[in-house]
Amino acid sequence: MVAVTPETGTSSTADARSGDLADQLRASFDAAVAAEERVEPRDWMPDEYRASLVRQMAQHAHSEIIGMQPEANWITRAPSLRRKAILMAKVQDEAGHGLYLYSAAETLGTSRDELLDKLHAGKQKYSSIFNYPTLTWADVGAIGWLVDGAAITNQVPICRCSYGPYARAMVRICKEESFHQRQGYELLLALSRGTEAQHAMAQDAVDRWWWPSLMMFGPPDDESAHSAQSMAWRIKRHSNDELRQRFVDIAVPQAESLGLTLPDPDIKWNEERGHHDFGAIDWAEFWDVLKGNGPCNEQRINQRRTAHEEGAWVRDAAAAYAEKHTSTGREVQA
Ligand code: BYC
């Protein structure tokens, strides 16, 4: 990989000293990616590669911090101290995941403030899934089992993403996500094996979260604007439909073990394909949620903006403290 130094120029193709140099840099980048070498922050990379990574990583980071809201809704009403402690730890993990991802995005020359401003202004997206409400305690289980399960299916391949800082952040995130998925499964299992009312609550949650979970993988391949290029750059390793199918194949036997039914009469094993067939996804609903018309879009973004405004004094105090101690030559202790 070609490191960007004062001799080789800056990270932008436009800034490369000549067309020849730009071609060489590009060829070297393409060869390195094809050879499964990691791209690191100081390496030369095409502007479009950098922009696409920032787009995906920002959306991912925003999803982590917005994703804290639907679950945090149940912290005060968790049915036991054990469940409350688990849920608090999980929500705290999501904040940590956001932090790793914003930090990884910063290595591409974009600041966390800039990305948050874009989120608050509606210029960057977060996952469609978090625009659905958490109506009952069982939703905490369904989010863990289905939403975190879908997230893991999507994110394990990103541990092999060509961009080093993103890939490394994903290793830790996936380890934590697998705990999240298991806590959701265990919670749903307890409800499913509980009273009739508890079982019905678990089934209702699965009925509501199943289809939105399938939408998390993004539009069908023939409508996915970025997949082909992202796969060529080894940012994505599998297409949206491939990962969605993998998730369905994993979820079907798990639903059976849980004693719950997936709300799709068309799910059946297809011997020839070696996969489960499943019913049609309501893509009109997906695009509508992306446009801001989901049940909770407005609530989620308003709550995020308010939290940001109300946290301004904490950021100011931390910055003033750091300034005071660096200007006096003393290091700030963590
Ligand atoms: N929601 O060309 P496409 C989590 C957008 S939650 C909203 O296929 P790409 C968590 C897409 O951005 C999950 N927008 O895009 C779990 C693009 O619009 P822009 C967060 C979506 O990037 C529990 C347009 O549709 N995970 O981790 O090739 C608790 C066309 O799509 C969605 C990640 O973000 C969607 N579901 O593939 C807390 C994983 N799907 O950008 C947190 C990393 C598509 O042109 N991201 N769009 O305006 C990815 O793997 C990929 O970005 C996606 C989409 C598979 C999501």
Write the layout of secondary structure elements.
Blueprint lengths: L18 H16 L12 H20 L1 H5 L8 H26 L5 H9 L17 H18 L8 H29 L3 H20 L11 H6 L7 H19 L9 E3 L4 E3 L5 H11 L3 H14 L1 H16 L7
Antiparallel strand pairs: 1-2
Helix pairs in contact: 2-4, 4-7, 6-7, 6-8, 6-10
The site of benzoyl coenzyme A (BYC) has 29 residues, from helix 2, helix 6 and helix 9.
Outline the structure in words.
The protein has a two-stranded antiparallel sheet. The protein has 334 residues and is mainly α. The site of benzoyl coenzyme A has 29 residues, from helix 2, helix 6 and helix 9. Its EC number is 1.14.13.149. One of its GO terms (biological process) is phenylacetate catabolic process. InterPro entries: Aromatic_CoA_ox/epox, Ferritin-like, Ferritin-like_SF, PaaA, PaaA_PaaC. It is an enzyme of class 1 (oxidoreductase).
At a glance:
Keywords: Oxidoreductase. Helices cover 63% and strands 2% of the residues. It has 334 residues and is an all-alpha fold.
Amino-to-carboxy terminus distance: 35 Å
The mean pLDDT is 93
Q: Output the helix-strand order.
A: HHHHHHHHHHEEHHH
Under the CATH scheme, which class? Mainly Alpha
Global structural class: mainly alpha
- Helical residue percent band: 55-70%
Shape: globular
CATH architecture: Up-down Bundle
CATH topology name? Ferritin
Strand content: under 5%
Number of domains: 1
Q: Number of helix segments?
A: 13
Largest sheet: 2 strands, antiparallel
CATH level 4 superfamily: Ferritin, core subunit, four-helix bundle
